[in-house]
Design brief:
single chain, 2 domains
C-alpha cells in the first residue's frame, strides 16, 4: 500500500517480534472501535512507519475466500462436495454465516468436525483425522495382503483382499494428507494474509498424522 502519511519519531510502533505485530495491532483496533474482529482479519497501514500502532493509520482487512484448490478436501484430500465454515453456527449465529470463511471439505470430514470451535485449519484437520483414525483403527490393524498372499487366494477371496488393501491405502492417504508442507500457508497468502501463522489460522507447516509404515509395499493396482 502507498504511504500517505509521514510520522514523527514519537509515533507509536511495535518494538517486539514482527510475527506478534498483527495480534497487537488487531487488539488495538478492536479496542478503539469497540468491537471484536474476525479471527482471519489482518491490519494494513497507510503510513511510512514499519509496524505502526497508530489506529488512525490502520485499515482492517478480511479475505472473502481462501485460495485452496477447489473440489479437494483440505482435511483429507478426498473430493470435496461441501464447504466447512471455519467458525460454527453456535459461535457466529445465522446472521453472520455469509461472512464466515469456508474451505472445501468432503462430507465425511465436515460431519466429523461438526461444531469444533477453532478457526485454525490445522487444528480442524487434526480433529477430522483423529476421528478418522479412531473409526479406521481395526482396518489399519488388519494384515495387508502381500503379492504372494494374494496369489495364494482363490478369485473371490482375492477380490475381497484387494478391496481391503485399497481401503487401507485410502485410509492411510487421508490420515497423512497433505504431502505439501506449505499447503495451508500458500492458500492464505494468495488470499492476502501474508502470515496466517501469526493470526493462529494454521500451523507453519501442514502435515497429517504420523503412521507406522505398511509391512508390504505392493500396489494393489497391480492385482486389480
Amino acid at each position: 500500500m502507498i504511504a500517505t502519511k509521514a510520522h514523527g519519531p514519537r509515533s507509536p510502533r511495535w518494538q517486539g517480534r514482527p510475527r506478534d505485530y498483527q495480534a497487537v495491532a488487531l487488539g488495538r483496533y478492536a479496542e478503539d472501535h469497540g468491537r471484536s474482529v474476525l479471527p482471519w482479519s489482518y491490519i494494513t497501514t497507510d503510513c511510512d512507519v514499519d509496524l505502526c500502532l497508530d489506529v488512525e493509520c490502520m485499515t482492517l482487512n478480511a479475505p472473502k475466500a481462501l485460495a485452496y484448490p477447489p473440489g479437494v478436501c483440505v482435511y483429507c484430500g478426498l473430493p470435496a462436495g461441501t464447504k466447512d465454515h471455519l467458525l460454527p453456527a453456535p459461535m457466529t449465529g445465522l446472521a453472520l454465516r455469509h461472512i464466515v470463511l469456508t474451505v472445501p471439505a468432503c462430507g465425511n470430514c465436515n460431519s466429523r468436525i461438526n461444531d469444533f470451535p477453532s478457526p485454525n485449519v490445522s487444528d480442524r484437520r487434526r480433529k477430522a483425522q483423529e476421528s478418522i483414525l479412531r473409526s479406521g483403527k481395526k482396518l489399519l490393524e488388519r494384515p495387508y495382503k502381500s503379492g504372494h498372499e494374494l496369489r495364494e487366494l482363490g478369485p473371490l477371496l482375492r477380490s475381497v483382499a484387494i478391496k481391503n488393501n485399497a481401503k487401507t491405502d485410502e485410509l492411510r492417504a487421508r490420515l497423512q494428507w497433505p504431502d505439501d508442507p506449505f499447503f495451508d500457508v500458500r492458500a492464505f497468502q494468495k488470499a492476502g494474509i501474508e502470515d496466517p501463522v501469526s493470526l493462529g489460522m494454521c500451523d507453519e507447516f501442514a502435515k497429517g498424522l504420523s503412521l507406522p509404515p505398511r509391512h508390504d509395499s505392493l500396489k494393489t493396482a497391480d492385482w486389480s
